[in-house]
DNA sequence: TCATCTGCCACGTTTGAAGTGA
DNA sequence: ATCACTTCAAACGTGGCAGATG
């Protein structure tokens, strides 16, 4: 794993010949981003990071936290995060490793998380690490809270976008710079599959402290007191194996065996018959992916896009494939194209845009009204939180105390019903190439906003327009 | 039958309102 | 009256568990 700060930049791409693009590109060429808690991320990555996703929404752990430098101190920037599928597969946890279980589910509504401080001057972003602590993940495709929707048992990677813009209305004229860190790749799960991950999380997450200490064990004891048939108790998959391997140790109370069974420690490697790669879903999974993907060479344009995104170089082989439209490049292991992806396009193509605003959790809850999914995007969406059930736009109207009146955070949804046909930018050109003005990334993005005009008086309205789409690669 | 998902639980942490004093 | 600080309760976030679901 190479240092995350070793950011690969690509400024050799001539900026499109549009106003302001050239200077923006130049001015932002020195922007550097590093991942905070990189070691922690790597610890998880070595095991195979899993992120719990729940219907009400779950925070990420480790949190997405970045350091920025090279920004213009007085220029304003917007920080965005989205999560992109690493590949087109669904995985399953089997015998200590992740295996390809089939073709990925159709993409859920795509949402982008806007850092609540946005927009803020470069000095603000650079003075301290930028945390995306409140970013939440959900598996509820009908989520109305604006959380980022993911599929369980699928692999994702966060992307961080920096946009120099005075406000959200300027975004489309601005240059996007996109960064990603290979060690932040994770598998979304509804329940932990790898016991090592659980342990690592409990050990590092203050909120889980109760489980590390008495709480869980006490509860477990209470449970056992009322147990009907202990041997029927379902064990964690790893624990089951561990019990076979170390029956005596396994039966110790959880917190006892925990301390001396640290993940990644040599002792663990030595003491556990399981191969190291068995703990690394990407060791195993990547092998699958390798096989799959190397047989699906990137197209020239795909490679170009890959090159234009600022990636942290990584041995993680899946990264290049983030732009790989596997449906266009069938591979032996990829199930035959069918359904929504059979055309090589995400499932939400040709579906009407659905957007809605909802208050941030921090804000006072406002009644949400259903918004017909057939509501055309060109309709002036009301400020009073229209809501649909397929995708929502989460706009926090409760701003940070230090910035009254400023949007707290925003999600940018593309609903499952959203028609990319409406955006109809070439899949490979919509996005993903940092250094490109936003309107070049997504021509329809601009078109839509222009279509709407600027009658919206706040960022919430602006947020109704998707900034990113999974279809872009 | 199995893999996965869901709701609930109890506990620690965080947050912000209320109280207090300078 | 204002500000800074402290206290405390409520809300939040967490992983485990058992049962439900497909």
UniProtKB/TrEMBL annotation:
The keyword Transcription applies. Keywords: DNA-binding, Nucleus, Transcription, Transcription regulation. Residues 1-24, 232-301, 316-380 are annotated as: Disordered. Residues 35-213 form the T-box domain. It is found in: Nucleus. Residues 328-352, 365-376 have a biased composition (Low complexity). SMART domains: TBOX. Pfam families: T-box. Residues 232-254, 264-278 have a biased composition (Basic and acidic residues). InterPro entries: p53-like_TF_DNA-bd_sf (IPR008967), T-box_DNA-bd (IPR046360), T-box_sf (IPR036960), TF_T-box (IPR001699), TF_T-box_CS (IPR018186). SUPFAM superfamilies: p53-like transcription factors (SSF49417). It comes from the Eukaryota. Its main location: nucleus. This is T-box-containing protein TBX6L-like. It comes from Huso huso (Beluga).
